[in-house]
Amino acid sequence: MAKTFIDYREDIGFWVAEIYMELTYEYVLQALNSIEDDLSIREELIEDIEFNINGLARGMLTLTWYSFLKNEEQLNEIDLVLNNAKNLLLDKGEYILVEELNKYEVKKKEMASKWPKPIKTSEVIKIVEALILMLNDEWYEPNYSMNIDYSFL
User: Fold this and answer.
1) Rounded to an integer, what distance in angstroms lies between the CA atom of residue 16 and that of residue 1?
2) Do 145 and 13 contact (CB within 8 A), yes or no?
3) H-helix or E-strand spanning residue 84
4) Which of 39, 92, 143, 151 is most exposed, with the fewest beta carbons within 10 Å of its own?
5) Which residue(s) pair with 144 in the sheet?
6) Contact at 8 Å (CB) between 8 and 135?
7) In whole angstroms, what is the distance from residue 5 CA to residue 34 CA?
8) What is the DSSP annotation of 9-78?
């Protein structure tokens, strides 16, 4: 299973399986699309997320938000999106079902995977919470390996 280092600033970040990060981006995109307010970062964020979830970023999947988050208002916007993603995941219950997981994989061109079983929603929530901490400058781990249960793969 391929892992990627997700960092935001100064090489502070975490290691996570790419397929789990792609899945996290799916829920961030859903959360973003559910917000009706005008967000100054909407277009850049959609472009970045779609690049990462289509499977073509495998082996180079990164967090490039620092390139377009320029002020406090934009940080507040992404914080709103991430908290909405967390709430969306909390509403799913204990597991994300195989049918839903594989529905996201179908959108990928050549790099689609198949999820063999449901995964714990809490595992994806951990990633969203880490992103929230990073963007709020509250993440201090330079080389953290996320404690994610990958036994569902």
Assistant:
1) 10
2) no
3) helix 72-90
4) 151
5) 14
6) yes
7) 28
8) ETTEEEEEEHHHHHHHHHHHHHHHHH--S--TTHHHHHHHHHHHHTSTTTTS----GGGT--SHHHHHHH
DSSP β-bridge partners for residue 119: 96
The Cα diameter of the chain in Å comes to 42
What residue has token string 């990073």? 134
Rounded Cα gap, residues 82 and 76, in angstroms: 10
Side chain identity, residue 46: I
Dist CA 89 CA 129 (whole Å) = 11
Q: Which pLDDT belongs to residue 110?
A: 62
Q: What is the identity of the amino acid at 52?
A: N
Structure tokens that stand for 82 in this block: 């991430």
Report yes or no: 32 and 49 within 8 Å, Cβ to Cβ.
Answer: yes
Q: β-pairing, 3-9 with 95-96? A: unpaired
Angle formed by the axes of helices 98-106 and 18-34, to 10°? Answer: 90
| Per-residue pLDDT reduced to its tens digit, 20-77 | 998 999 999 999 999 998 999 899 899 888 888 876 666 667 777 777 788 899 889 9
Neighbours of 39 (CB within 10 A): 19
